[in-house]
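Morning!

This is the sequence you dropped in the shared folder:
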Amino acid sequence: MIKLHNFYFGRVLGLCLLVLSQVSLIKSVSAQPPDSASSIVESAISVGAGPRCVAVGDFDGDGKLDFVTANQEANNVSVFLGKGTGSFKEAKGSPVAVEGSPRAIVVADFNGDKKLDLAVANSSSNNVSILLGDGSGGFKATNDSPVEAGPRPISLAVGDLNNDGKLDLAVANMVSGAVSILLGDGSGGFKSAARPFKVGRTPTFLALGDFNGDHKLDVVTVNQVSNNVSVLLGNGDGTFQAKADFEVGSHPRSVAVADVNGDQKPDLIIANGNANSVSVLLNDGNGSFGPKTDFPTGSAPRWLAVGDFDNDGKLDLAVANEESNDVSLLMGDGTGHFTPHTSIPVGTNPVAVAAGDFNGDHSLDLAVANNGPNNVSILIGDGTGKFRPRH
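The structure's back. Tokens below.
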């Protein structure tokens, strides 16, 4: 049975922030080396210029996973529909134009029509594009799109932040060091909440979770300059308490939220870009986190995807490493510790990774956005923690 943690709140079906999200040292599981590094390149799928994010979901309702990328240099998103075999074809109408420098995508049903929609953070135009899905893989901007955000929105997450049964957005604004809240009306419209909420210096990534067990969503941001994460506990009405900061590694770039030690409390896993490591912070259940434990990765880790890659019931971690041009696999032991990493080569400058079952074999696969060659590598998992490029 597949175990993939996207941290689904309300009706959220996919994230690019993480997409999809979680992590776990002891029982070593080796990665399957491909026949050659060139086989990875040959199996990659060309997308728009400057892909910075990849997210997955069933966009055409055929029961097969699809993927979408945010293409920063092309100012658009590419949509690819899965065939259920690990192969993909570009959707009709793709790419879809958005605003300036799209950096992140979340996938959810914003208007309650049971069709997946997209929200895209546009970092240079300081706004968020809302694209409603037509159920066949096509997307169209709402009349009110784009929605204003703060200065340089670079990451976003989706969930019901005010407990009205409608999905909202939390947006990390890199320049102002604050989080903007966009409240959803249930029909695809969004409006800004009263004020932004301060976090650490230069937030580059954001995720949601119920960190204190009060059934109200909280926010965590990764702060690149201050080398910490900020946790904002939610009041359940779209507002948040003052931040609490927790130290992580140098130059953190992204965070995943997952219960990595099996105590039913969501923990934090952070990719530290300059430290070449991930930090694991265990949750005490009251909204606070213990000191970090670090695990080495490849060079310049940028993004995390979490799932049970070896089908042992324990969460594992896949990390996209921008400078070593590979994905690190760290297998979890269920206590919050992970094996020494193994590496799978992918394309040049991988900056994002998402997990899903792309070929219907009930084992998790990986989609990796390679910013250098403007493509996505598809790695097929065999359910034992080994991966190969798609054929």
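Headline: Residues 128 and 147 are 5 Å apart (CA to CA).

More detail when I'm at my desk.
O.
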